[in-house]
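Practice set, problem 2.
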Amino acid sequence: MKIAVDARTMASRPSGVGNYLSDFLKALFQRKEFDVILICDVAESEAIRFFLGHSVPVFCYGKRVFRSAGVFAYFSYVRKILLSEKPDCFWEPNNLFPFPLTGFHGKVILAVHDLFPITMPQYYSRRYRFYFRTCIRMSLKQADAVLYNSQETKRVTEEYFPFLKQKSNFVSYLIVPKPPAKEVIDEGFFLYIGNLEKRKGTDLLLNAWCSYREKGGERPLYLAGNIREKGIAALLHEAEGRFADLHYLGYVTDEEKYDLLSRCHCFVFPSRAEGFGLPPLEAVGYGKPVLTSDLSVFREVLGDDVLTFPIDKGENRQMQILSQILLDEHVWSKKLTNHKNYNYAEVLGRYIPETLSERLATFFYEIVYSGSRPFEDRNGSKSKERRHKDTGKRKVRIQNYE
């Protein structure tokens, strides 16, 4: 099976969706029955270099694309590659595409991670909300199948678009890679890793931590990730001026991320809206206490026995509650780390690459080949007639836009 993938989200500085895609692709491209080709805007990230180093063809637009009119030109390039390469399947991992993929006759599989521009409109511009609402409906109608990152995302999406209940779909949880072996120590700091924006509760965390420090709390706070909003940048700058033990690290590599996770005291993730929530699971990989908001998706992904705080209060009340929890850690930390019902290994066992990639591969077969595996007969042996020939190591192709 030849799969073309829009890899723009992992092409420069990947975060949530980019990491989701990279982890699944690393598992899928190793399967002999898959030929993977990547389409991206630039080829700057470690993830893209990994696939180049393993002879995966990469078609590169040649310049960075953001949320602007450049997206339309980029997808014209994507469609051009699809029409020339004629893959069996096109996988769009990032919610939508801006116009119909006219002329492409392969299957289209769309991954939906959230509907936040619809469900949480206060965090998006009016222009982007209109763009998203228009294009998500068109994209969902054209898609032959939909991937969801959680049951919660599936429930919300089908609530807004009931026609999806009749469309093939699959809940494809995110892979949580086994963290590299490190000495797990406690250097006493709170840690947040993720994009810095209001939707992620970054303002809530900064205000709560500043209140915690004013009330006598002594633990430093480390934040890592891309700043997505000017208001967050201003709030961070103000807090840094008040407290020398607030440390903003910017975007961190995987190696730096795992180093921070292995050394933190507690991972704090006060998101106001989340489709899945990978960072808390990565912290669980080192047995660290995790404190999240009480969104239903965290109960689905992390289980019922992690510490949460209510997110359905007003912003000031949310901040007060979180600040007090940080102060009362002698109570909650013991409760969490000694909780008899919380099994770190069992939780992480739901998200191992081998299991999730096998399920996803099976789903691709069901969509592209109506459930039959083209490389095996009914007895499980390889069929004499293959849909394509093994060609050995594939030549790397990087095509730049001109």
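Problem 2, part (b): a different protein.
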Amino acid sequence: MNKSVLKPDTYFILTKKTNMKKLIAVAFLGLAFGTNAQTIESGSHSTTGYVKSDGTIENSSHSTKGYIKSDGTIENSSHSTIGYIKSDGTIESSSHSTVGYVKSDGTIENSSHSTIGYVKSDGTVENSSHSTIGHASGVKREWAAVVFFFFKF
């Protein structure tokens, strides 16, 4: 019997195992790189913190400062609820009083509807005078607004 020739059944099984290993490797890499954090930067581009894809907010030393949950709940580092992001862009305190608004165009308003800043589509964060105060590229506008205007590091 020639050992270099595999039976069709054996070839199929080996190919299936190899493909499964590749699939597992790709899935693992996807998980490893899919949890990367987006950097929060000051106006001068120094790193001030991170927002992970799961909503974890960290300072520049990677200490957890809070969480933004998928349902819009905002929590401090102890998992106590400190506010909410509503689907219409309203930002509320833990007692459900409105503290601000994130408009669809990136305008950030306080509870009195006075503009306090902007989050541009490229992630640039500006104050009400259009001076750049930070950068949050790749971060949802609502999350960037919470980090810069409502969640003080």
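Answer key, part (b): The chain has a mean pLDDT of 79. Residues 36 and 50 are 9 Å apart (CA to CA).
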